[in-house]
Design goal:
The protein has seven helices and two strands. With 139 residues, the chain is mainly α. It has two domains: 1-86, no CATH class; 101-139, no CATH class. It has a two-stranded antiparallel sheet. A hairpin with a 2-residue loop joins strand 1 and strand 2. It is globular. The two termini are 25 Å apart.
């Protein structure tokens, strides 16, 4: 039986981009039957989708590239070769957006709901979805 485990933190970066390593790891863990079931419903949507949209590639195409045996660096190179090039200011906006999702924005209410559902509602140090993911997964 395969050991189920959470992927790396969304804060883990590759070439300055947060979340991409987590996205690749989620794909690999799911294919191996090792991704916790509570993460299955969000595969290819939410932050996965936003990352793919930023890179200009379809989730299913990136998934195929990852499952073809590419490590994170090669998967990112593939995405850059098959996606879109972004100017530095768009890259900076996207990084800032990803790091702060849930803080005083349209997802603040959803973050609070998730905190309550997870028994973390009293934690005042959890301000973003990245904070929540790490706390919820025991980091």
């Amino acid at each position: 039986m395969t050991d189920v485990r959470y992927p790396c933190s969304p804060t883990d970066e590759i070439d300055g981009l947060p979340y991409f390593r987590r996205l690749c790891e989620k794909i690999r863990l799911h294919a191996a039957g090792a991704l916790p079931e509570d993460l299955h419903a969000n595969l290819g949507i939410g932050m996965d989708l936003w990352t793919c949209q930023f890179l200009g590639v379809a989730y299913e195409a990136l998934k195929t590239a990852v499952l073809d045996g590419n490590d994170d660096e090669a998967a990112l190179a593939w995405a850059r070769a098959h996606g879109v090039s972004r100017p530095d200011h768009e890259r900076d906006w996207w990084i800032a957006f990803m790091r702060t999702v849930g803080f005083r924005d349209r997802l603040s209410k959803r973050l609070q709901e998730r905190l309550e559902e997870s028994g973390l509602g009293e934690r005042e140090d959890i301000l973003t979805m990245f904070d929540y993911i790490d706390a919820d997964e025991g980091r």
